[in-house]
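Cross-check.
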Amino acid sequence: MSLLGQLFPSSVLRPMELGSDGLIVLTVAGLLFVLTRYRKWGWLWREWITTVDHKKIGVMYLVASLVMLFRGGVDALLLRTQLAAPNSTFLGPEHYDEIFTTHGTIMVFFMAMPLMFALYNAVIPLMIGARDVAFPRLNAISFWVFAFAAILFNISFVIGGSPDAGWTAYAPLTELTFNPGVGENYYLLALLISGIGTLASGINFVATILGMRARGMTLMRMPLFVWSALVSSALILFAFPALTVALGLTMLDRLFGSSFFTIAHGGMPMMYVNLFWIWGHPEVYLLVLPAFGIFSEVVATFSRKRLFGYASMVGSLLAITLLSFGVWVHHFFTMGAGAAVNAFFGVSTMLIAIPTGVKIFNWIMTMWGGRVRMTVAMLWQMAFIPVFVLGGATGVLLAVVPGDYQFHNSYFMVAHFHTMLIGGVVFGFLSGLYYWWPKMFGYMLDERQGRWAFWLYFIGFWVTFVPQYLLGLEGMTRRMYTYSAGFGWTTLNQISTLGAFIMGAGFLVLVFNIVYSMLHGERDLTGDPWDGRTLEWSLPSPAPEYNFACLPTVAERDTWWEAKREGGAVAARLRAGDIGPIVMPKPTAVPFFIGLGFFVAGAGMVFSWWVVAAVGFAGVLALLVAGWFDYRDHEELSRDVVLRAEAAAGRVQA
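Predicted model, tokenized:
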């Protein structure tokens, strides 16, 4: 028996995906040799792994989300390749279910969420005039807990088998009787661990926005992106506990023999469905609200106009936040809840389209009469409007209960879901990525290559999902791994698959653009390449560790834009005062090892290795105690160092 065969039961190993023991040993030995031979790699430890700087944490979130976008995108291409031809054997039914599950889980939990937190970390403290987030070390813990949860989930393909019950993990598909492997354990533990980091981030950004704004920045002077971050972070605090309860009870059913959702022992699977979607539909808006905030910043900057209807935009954000908790039942109209319940949730679902539509008109009126510059960031904004209108209209169709009886679980619903999440969330985050990239890294992304990436992705999007609406109307249901040629679905599936590969090409051009621009991109020497309106553009690019040498004072909404119009008043209004003591938290390795501890504990629970799990949890508790005594460990930056940095940036007299 091989070395790994001695460590794991034969039912756990997947030799075709693992490779040989010799290859694994050589790989590990090679990594250890590199890490010990080249000491200059110590910068990775000093600058990144131990950092508590919100800007560097944002970069790490961004890298992780792009890697997960690639992984989830490859899953999507595999699914579309399987469905491109009738009676295909490219993927077997079990493998198809696994990839179907990992695609949805990765895209929602391990791609979209970290991409949102990447932008929050990159710019929210800068936009509100703060030196850091409220709890810098908790911010680092949030990232490393998420990162190790993502690693735990992704190794399921290598050791033990991937989850295969769908990204929603409905009972009884997750019952131990019907799903005896460890795949669902990976799903449950990875999401529970990741949820700890998500809840911590939600608390952190609510505290940061409410408690660390610059002097004079009232709530109604905050940028719209900050407002969207505030309401989405509040959604995290109220929605994620429901998901945590659902996943925790399912874990108890699988690992400890309880029967919360087990029908044979009196459990209620519908309780899981309710808990999941009490989280699930606020989650959709939790992701799309930041995109709304991004578009509001982008459209105002590149239209060179004050945002039209600021108060109504804030009101619509708050309305969407509240209404998002009253629509979850539309996900299971067909479950038989009754006409009265279905009617109420059908009306509430239609009602949420009103504040969403308000934003569309606000953005159009902002562009109306403005001097619009069609940058790549603005192209994503323009593309979003027709896509989201289509997604909203099809959402209203799904909210009509008799119609939903026909559309439910069909590819019409699949197309609607992807229209909203890709056309809303991904388009929005890509717009923000191009917009704030100079601020994050100090150089511009190439606009010409950015346009190629945009048009490939945008065209591929329509080619992919319009045929899926038609397939849904023709009766093709979701989760089908193959179909008969007699159904007449071949042509539409082939067109949809072609579109998916075009989208993949657009993503590859984006990656090439990042690498090319890193080597040859135009440097952002002014800190304000777009003639921006908000405080982050008053800083050099990338911003220094301490963000602001002198904390600014805000007198109006578009502070930086108004200050530039007044010329010499810029220094007086935003940079007034002597540079006093600047105290910043020291780097620490505690967050990294807390994430590692959760990984060890989660892996132990996946395989019911209780000693390993206990060691992992004990390590986490010990590190939390150590971190508690370490949380006051700060350092005061030298005033001379800060003055030299500010002089080099042209912000003060040398």
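The two ends are 71 Å apart (CA to CA). The first helix runs from residue 3 to 7. Passed to J.P. for a second look.
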